[in-house]
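Changelog-adjacent note: as of this version, every example in the card shows the full chain rather than a window. The one below runs 529 residues end to end.
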Amino acid sequence: MKEFSIVIRNGRIIDGSGNPWFKGDVGIDGDRINRVGNLGQFEAESEIDAKELFVCPGFIDVHSHSDVSFFVNQKADSKITQGVTSEIVGNCGHSAAPITELGKTFYAKGYEEKGIDWNWSTVAEYLKQLEDQGIPLNVGTLIGHGNIRASVMGYDDRNPTLEELESMKKLVEEGMRDGAFGISTGLKYAPGCYAKTDEIVELCKVVQRYGGIYATHIRNQGDFLIESIDEAIEIGRRSGVPIQISHLKSKGRSNWGKARNMLRIISEARVSGVDVTFDQYPYLAGQSNLISRAPSWAREGGPECLLERLKDPKQRKMIEVEIPKSEDWHGPENTIIAGFAPNRSYEGKSLKELGNIRDQTPESVVCNLLLESEGVVPVVSFYGWEKDIRDIMTHHAMMVGSDGSSLAPYGVLGRGKPHPRSYGCFSRFLGRYVLKEGLLNVEEGVRRTTYFPARRFGLLDRGLLRKNMFADLLIIDAEKVVDVATFEDPHKYSKGIEYVLINGKMVIKNGNFTGILAGKTLKHVIYNN
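Full-length structure tokens:
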């Protein structure tokens, strides 16, 4: 009789704790790790020789936007090839659930265009739909504050009434009871940008009672970066909830160098007793929708209302005047069209180039593209400074999060020129910054992508290569780890992740997909409620 279903032999084991690697074997029984050490005397149904290769826990992407990607393509190609075995979705204030019929009216068109049958409302129903159809990796969700606000009061730029606030708190409580890991905000985006600090504090108090976390895309990452960091810390201090600042960065040349100041503020907050950590993706550019360049007043009421305002000459002129004041306006040459369904030839071109082609000002190009695409224009914006990235990366409260989604170089998810982070975030961090440049040692680099995020989000049986933990494992060729995806050619798989095991099943073998859907839905464990 075989003692194990799989034995990985002769590997350099990095267990995720930050301890030095050691040589040994890993025995897997079903979906769990059964034994770690010298297993030479044991037999297995399947064996992998990992000589000269690293063996470590699977990477955990704490900041993902793959909420509905799995309903379009079940394979999650771009994430698994860079070693991601678990994701937390529902970030930046938007999640697939919970949602009311009112809330659905603001997002239904996008779901319909992707061919998604949106027949859920609660977190429990959403997770069940994922389970029923099968998923390639493990998925847990946050509650999007934007969903909550849209579901109760639409896209109104005002404070909620007491009755509306109670309705929002009830939706948060239901989501937490269904297994959500906390709440997220996108305080830059509508409708989240209309919420005041007090509103967020009240909702976070509900999350705190259930032991959840507050993940925030802060209100501003440019000229008002420090004030926005202060607001996030204030929310944590007043509500008692742990804070996860999303994709920490400093945007725009005038703000380069602010990273050290904001890191000092975060460190001081931790010393004072505020539990704050953050995630980062290692790129000098980000991706969002061109609609966020419009001033907040123009976005009130939702995308359709913005489009109506753009058709009014007087309001359009006011919008064009304010576009360059956006925190994402770093010059038209630094904003690149990632997707444009009406004219695919625009993809990969900058606003400056399109202005020349169309004989229009960059601000006019923004307004016209939004009108022509009915408000859907994903763009990549270059804003960063390499030194800030490195300062943020070496801070002890940093973990890795892609801010990307599961894509594929084929089908609907293979369109356009999206940010390469969806294909290469983790392999770029490990291959370039850790293994090649040594900014962190390999054991610490692995900890930042495994055990640290697992503990932060309460995934107590993942993130460590230890007995009885779920067998989410990677076998990595350190000499070959590289992110191949670029801004010019983003739909390229990473290299160097030779094997990926998820819940004890081989999802990637010798660098190739096996077609197995081994993922599980992840639920936050509630104590004393």
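Structural remarks: DSSP finds 19 helices and 21 strands in the chain.
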